[in-house]
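FAQ

Q: What does a record look like?
A: Structure on top, sequence underneath. For example:
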């Protein structure tokens, strides 16, 4: 698994309480290769392997990111897998917009904060651990609907635009990170429609066989990461290993 990384590598998974994040932590732990897995979530820890450090913080806040930075304390990170993302939140009346009249400034701001700003601030928080001469993969979950080139359907303004901004933040960080670590690979990844809370309200429209389990997706995304090399840093891939246009 992830042969590009050294044996006993250190992984940080954010959104580790979400459907895909949790599956990724479980998949990592099925291998002997990771030596330390920092599972970051707002929820109570669920992983009990001795290699796991559960960190219960909200990294969408400055304080949460500071606590994560303190925990890592500048030690090298080989895998940063960000599985945080927001599409709908009934308690806050957030749901994908169908038409212009549905747009709401506060909702848009929340979506941008969680989906675009938080991922790049995570990289900012952990940059000293990503610098150096060690191989490092920084992968963050985007969504195909964030592809500007691929947008034929419209709708879902805030989610789409925040994922497009996510991709631009990552692509911009690539240029800088390449100066700090020639072995860093930064990737935007599309998991495919996955059976989690995020997709739950929209699953009835998913064609037969196209709703994936989180475990399948974690396995596929590990394979996609495994196939990448530093000259592909800053690219956008789907679960099947096909590139997606920005
Ligand atoms: N499921 C799909 O079909 C699909 C399709 C395309 C892209 N994606 C992307 O894949 C990623 C993972 O999604 P998922 O399907 O695993 O969804 P999920 O089960 O809802 O997990 C998302 C996680 O993001 C974190 N999060 C969400 N809202 C937050 C908020 N307001 N403040 C702080 N943290 C928040 C939470 O992490 P903690 O609970 O650990 O705190 C949450 O569990 C997302 O970026 C999503 O956009 C999913």
């Amino acid at each position: 698994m992830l042969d590009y990384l050294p044996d006993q590598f250190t992984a940080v998974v954010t959104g580790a309480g979400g459907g895909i994040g949790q599956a990724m932590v479980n998949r990592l732990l099925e291998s002997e290769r990771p030596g330390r897995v920092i599972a970051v979530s707002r929820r109570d820890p669920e992983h009990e392997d001795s290699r796991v450090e559960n960190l219960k913080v909200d990294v969408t806040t400055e304080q949460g990111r500071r606590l994560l930075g303190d925990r890592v304390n500048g030690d090298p990170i080989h895998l940063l897998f960000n599985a945080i993302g927001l599409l709908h939140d009934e308690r806050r009346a957030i749901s994908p917009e169908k038409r212009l009249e549905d747009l709401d400034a506060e909702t848009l701001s929340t979506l941008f904060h969680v989906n675009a700003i938080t991922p790049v601030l995570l990289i900012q928080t952990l940059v000293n651990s990503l610098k150096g001469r060690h191989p490092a993969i920084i992968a963050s979950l985007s969504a195909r609907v964030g592809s500007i080139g691929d947008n034929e359907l419209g709708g879902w303004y805030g989610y789409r635009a925040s994922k497009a901004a996510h991709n631009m933040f990552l692509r911009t960080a690539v240029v800088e990170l390449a100066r700090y670590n020639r072995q860093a690979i930064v990737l935007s990844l599309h998991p495919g429609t996955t059976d989690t809370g995020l997709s739950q309200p929209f699953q009835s429209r998913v064609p037969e066989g196209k709703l994936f389990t989180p475990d399948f997706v974690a396995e596929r995304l590990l394979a996609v990461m495994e196939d990448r090399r530093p000259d592909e840093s800053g690219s956008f891939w789907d679960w099947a290993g096909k590139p997606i246009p920005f």
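Q: Is there anything notable about this one?
A: Residues 9-238 form a domain with the Rossmann fold fold (CATH 3.40.50.720).
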